[in-house]
Every structure is written in structure tokens, then in C-alpha cells.
Amino acid sequence: MDLKNKFNNFWKYIKEAKKITLCTHIEPDGDTLGSAVALQHLILLNEKDKEVRISGSDYPRNLLFLLDNKQGNLVDDEFFSESLKIVVDTSTKERIYDQRVITKKALKIDHHPFENEWLFEIGGDFWPATGQLITKLAKELKLKVNEKVLEALGVAILTDTEFFKERNVNSETFECMQYLLDNNLNYSQLIKKMQLNNDELDFIFNAINNKKVKGIVSYLVVDEVVSNDIVRPLVAKFVELSNTEVSLAILRSINNVYRCEIRSKTNYNVSKVANHFLGGGHFNSSGFIIENLSNLNEILDYINNSKISN
């Protein structure tokens, strides 16, 4: 089935539903939030008599301008049970923030490798951001858009491509951004809205000063709690300032485990490293969790001794 037919079938489910719950992933980033907000407003703009809610929380502070409900939360049980569930930018059941979701009874629109069984799925690791996929959906189905849709899709694409620095950015990515701009996205205003505050910038600057190198790996250990607000921009800035093939940021989470974000610049498949340590992700961008720092040298040695290029 080609992508346009998948879009049409996906939208048929939406047409048939009165209530819809959009579910984001744990440790949410700009792509899952932006994609959910964009899809919510696309449905409300283009279909009559729909009630669409987003179920999730812990969204980055600098992206809360996208939300009507600034805090974000799980939808109530009654609405959830009566609604069509659509999971956005989330690879597996374990990654869904709202654990009430039964994948076989839910739709998924995503840009990760195919995993789990879904009622209907548009996925596969073919796009740098789910926001790009939803932009294509809006364009192909000729859906009406507004400022909220445009900003949300802009956030989704910009944050998950790390402002067009990811390896799998392609001409279609820029065509999608052109579509948003042609529909009057105020790009400079959006960038201003997404800015970090001074405290967040200072934290990132101080953390990156502790960068170390071992073999092909630049690595960073942050033993202070790193809130989800700044994980993505911290990692993006760290990778930008690293000159090795692999960059590994090891960040203490609020629950005192360590969130390991691993990136590569060219042909090193970091998803295989993440899988080895029970995580996952994309070829050039993946992650995993460790309980403590006792196996840090094991991780660094594994990366350096593995010849992973496909």
C-alpha cells in the first residue's frame, strides 16, 4: 500500500470516531508533542463534531506554548475508554506515556522501526521526524491548516532533526518546511518562542565543559538531575561541539537512573549499541538507561571495539 493510500485509510478511522485520544511517549520531546498538537488541530479543523484530547505529561518548558492545557495530563478513564487511541512518535508499548493503551486496538503514526501489533500503523524508519510524516499527510490530503498546526509541525521537524543536522535529513524534509512556510508559518517568531531561558542555557554550558574523549567517543556525564526540559537541547549542543564519530551523553534522571543518549555523525549504527544495552532508536540517534555509572568503561569499550556500520 502506497503512502497516500495509508493516509486515506488512517483518516477514515478518524472520520468514524467521535472521540480521539492522542498519546505521546515518555520523556517527551518536541517531535511527539508537536506531532500530537498538529494532529489534534488538523482533526478539529477538518472534521465536524470531534473531541480530541492529548494524553501525556512532562513536556519541555520551552515548548509549552503549543499546549492549551499548559501542564498536560492523562485523559480521564471515561473519555479514554470511549475514544479512538492514536499513538504518535512512539516505537513500542513500553514507550507510551499512557500505559492504558492496548496496541492491537490503537493506531500508530511514527518514524521508528516496526514493532508490536497495531490496529493500523503508518511507520518505519524512513523519516527524520514524525512531524515530517504528518506534514506529508496534511499536504497529500489537502487538509486545512492554521497557525497552531504550522507551529507544531515546525517544532516537531526542527527539534527531531536538531535543526537539520541529523544524517537522514533529505530533500523531502526541506520540501515539508517549504510547505509550512508557504502556508505562512512565521519562522522567526517560532524560533523565538522555542528559546531556552538563561538558567537552562547556563546549565547546558556548565555541563558541556565536562566533555571527555575515549577513542571514537566524546562522552559527558552529568551527575546533577537533568530535567526533561533541557535533555534534547543539551544533547544537541554537546553533539555539535564534539568532533568524534560517536557522542554519548549520560544524564542523571529525576528517578536517579541515568539516561544515555548516543549519537553518531556518519556510518556508525548507534542503535545496535542501544539495543545491546536494552534500549533502542535510530541509526544515528538512540538511547538506553543504566542504573548507575559502574559499567561506564564497559559501555565505552563496547562502542570503541564494535565495528558497527550497518
In summary, what is this structure?
With 310 residues, the chain is an alpha/beta fold. It is 40% helix and 18% strand. It has a six-stranded mixed beta sheet with strand order 6-7-8-9-11-10, sandwiched between helices.
Question: What is the topology?
Answer:
Blueprint: H1 3-16, E1 19-23, H2 30-46, E2 51-55, H3 77-82, E3 84-88, E4 106-109, E5 120-122, H4 130-140, H5 147-160, H6 171-182, H7 187-193, H8 198-208, E6 212-214, E7 217-225, H9 228-241, E8 246-252, E9 258-264, H10 270-276, E10 280-281, E11 285-290, H11 296-305
Parallel strand pairs: 1-2, 1-3, 3-4, 4-5, 7-8
Antiparallel strand pairs: 6-7, 8-9, 9-11, 10-11
In the CATH scheme, the class of the largest domain would be Alpha Beta
Query: Helicity level, as a percent range?
Result: 25-40%
In CATH terms, what is the architecture of the largest domain? Alpha-Beta Complex
The counted number of beta strands is 11
CATH topology descriptor of the largest domain: inorganic pyrophosphatase (n-terminal core)
Largest sheet: 6 strands, mixed
The fraction of residues in strands falls at 15-25%
Instruction: Flag low-confidence runs.
Output: none
* Overall geometric form: globular
**Helix/sheet category:** alpha/beta
Number of helices: 11
The value of Rg in angstroms is: 19 Å
Domain DDH: 19-156
Domain DHHA1: 215-304
Keywords: Hydrolase
Protein name: NanoRNase/pAp phosphatase (C-di-AMP/oligoRNAs hydrolase)
